[in-house]
Amino acid sequence: MNIHRRHVAHTGIVLFVLAGNMLGQQANLGYDDTPMQPNGRWHIHDGKRPQPPLVRPAPMKVSPVPAPADATQLLGDRDDLSAWQMMDGSPATWVMKNGTLETGKGVIRTRAELADFQLHVEFATPSEIKGDGQGRGNSGVFLLGKFEIQVLDSHQNPTYPDGQAAAMYGQYPPLVNASRPPGEWQTYDIVFTAPRFTPAGALDKPAIVTVLHNGVVVHNATPFWGPTAHRKIEPYTRETARGPIALQDHGNPVRYRNLWVRAVKEYDKP
Fold it and tell me: Could you tell me the maximum CA-CA distance found in the chain, to the nearest angstrom?
């Protein structure tokens, strides 16, 4: 075999090995031993589910987006955590400096409980890349403390699609991946409708969410199958009709700023 043919053969072997490794990595992105989701198409956290297509969002403005006049500021330009507490009711222990909150130990939640609302969140995953998959810039925004919109560094960081940034965790991937590079500020704009129950306590209407990630629609009036859990989906109960906004600690330093919320009321109601 001449040098050229040997080089071609060697290249083919390398490409075959790389392709095999990539397929192996793809197969190991998630799980195949979890329950099927209610529509019967994919396992919960299925690593073989198609990855959402990439969409480059518009550049982020340097300054935080101002809140509407009727919004409640949950995180503002003052280092004030009076709206927050730990899940056990003790004072919030996460550190806030110069208007920026960094994740600490445990989960923090708002003191107020809500039902239907519009929520604005600005967050940034670490600029220094450490870890991969679910171990990279992981946190989460919990609606009513029970329904998670995932926070993750999903810029060139594959993981199981229903666990990537902006996913309805364990249920639906975002329609597209609109993530910015690590370290850059990003936004979630969320419109949430709480579940409704009959007088007897049966589920009448599920929770519904619309999410814009960096100004791009990634969920469009999509119902949750139930409250968020890892490797499963919890059932609806009456307790899921109301709750706080909660931010998750997942062992990664994620920053938050400029969180505000406003109640969404029914038509013709003052």
Answer: 84
Q: What is the residue range of 56's domain?
A: 31-263
Q: Label residues 45-69 b or e (16+ Cβ within 10 Å = b).
A: bbbebebbeebebeebeeebeebee
Residue 148 in any domain: the answer is: yes
Question: pLDDT of 150-162, one tens digit each?
Answer: 999 999 999 999 9
**Per the structure, how many domains does the chain have?**
1
Could you report the per-residue pLDDT of 197-255, keeping only the tens digit for each?
A: 999 999 999 999 999 999 999 999 999 999 999 999 999 999 999 999 999 999 999 99
Question: Is 175 part of a structural domain of the chain?
Answer: yes
The CATH number of residue 249's host domain is 2.60.120.560
Question: Which burial class, exposed, middle or buried, applies to 152 when counting CB atoms under 10 A from its CB (0-12, 13-18, 19+)?
Answer: buried
